[in-house]
């Protein structure tokens, strides 16, 4: 974990090596009060607009980002939003954003769900993906890679992907219905779904690695931060650990 201007965050060695600005932010370093303490970016609950604006300002200063971080209305679907000069003022219902716009910063909000950042170092394009269990079994990660191929002519073999902090299998027991959905999407892969007693534990991170591999990425081009948001609740917002009332951390990537 790294710290800049009091903001704690995790970065990916793979994306860093390519020199691209990005971060999986923690909950530390912002202004919001409990239960959104402190680096919250979600305005759907009762946190004030001033707090969120200040938090945005702090990260833009810390990471020298010239434009506001573009986000989407995350709906646990599999739609991918293409950010370009014609859509820059749109706030779409989607769970992934792709762009090739120079100067653009894109991000997703999570609290247990999986944030994934993708870089195409050849076509100079990026993506930010929000994958909860629903998006994960809908293969939102693969949908995003397919959208980059269609929109930017990206070759999946060139792409670099980083999977950020999310709820680990240690804390993610699921019921029979969710377990069935995992089996439908990922087969009997024990890395994605581990049977434990009468129930099962799902590994959202491994499931998304599997989705990225099926989209054509190379395993060595995927980084995985094995940090559980629920086990590390003082550092990260966790929807489960905080009993549903909490903030959302931002993960972003920016093209200069
Ligand atoms: Zn855990």
Structure report:
With 256 residues, the protein is an alpha+beta fold. The chain has a single domain, classed as CNF1/YfiH-like putative cysteine hydrolases (4-Layer Sandwich), CATH 3.60.140.10. The protein contains 6 helices and 15 strands. The strands form 3 sheets. Strands 1-2-3-15-7-4 form a 6-stranded mixed β-sheet. Strands 5-6-9-8-10-14 form a 6-stranded mixed β-sheet. Strands 11-13-12 form a 3-stranded antiparallel β-sheet. A hairpin with a 4-residue loop joins β8 and β9. α4 packs parallel to α6. The longest helix is centred in the first third of the chain and has 15 residues. The two termini are 24 Å apart. Bound molecules: zinc ion (ZN). The site of zinc ion (ZN) has 6 residues, from loops.
């Amino acid at each position: 974990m790294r710290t800049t201007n009091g903001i704690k965050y995790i970065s990916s060695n793979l994306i860093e090596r390519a020199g691209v600005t990005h971060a999986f932010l923690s909950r530390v370093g912002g202004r919001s009060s409990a239960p959104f303490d402190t680096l919250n970016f979600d305005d759907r609950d009762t946190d004030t607009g001033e707090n969120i604006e200040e938090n945005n300002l702090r990260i833009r200063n810390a990471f020298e980002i010239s434009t506001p971080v573009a986000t989407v209305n995350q709906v646990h679907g599999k739609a991918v939003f293409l950010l370009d000069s014609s859509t820059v003022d749109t706030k779409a219902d989607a769970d992934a954003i792709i762009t090739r716009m120079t100067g653009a910063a894109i991000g997703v909000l999570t609290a247990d769900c999986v944030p994934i950042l993708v870089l195409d170092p050849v076509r100079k394009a990026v993506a930010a993906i929000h994958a909860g269990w629903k998006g994960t079994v809908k293969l939102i990660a693969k949908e995003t890679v397919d959208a980059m191929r269609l929109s930017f002519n990206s070759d999946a073999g060139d792409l670099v992907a980083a999977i950020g902090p999310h709820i680990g299998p240690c804390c993610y027991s699921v019921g029979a219905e969710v377990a069935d959905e995992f089996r439908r999407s990922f087969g009997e892969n024990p890395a994605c779904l581990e049977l434990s007693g009468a129930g099962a534990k799902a590994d959202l991170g491994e499931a998304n690695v599997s989705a990225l591999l099926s989209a054509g990425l190379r395993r060595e081009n995927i980084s995985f931060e094995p940090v559980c948001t629920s086990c590390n609740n003082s550092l990260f917002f966790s929807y489960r650990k905080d009993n549903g009332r909490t903030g959302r951390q931002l993960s972003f990537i920016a093209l200069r």
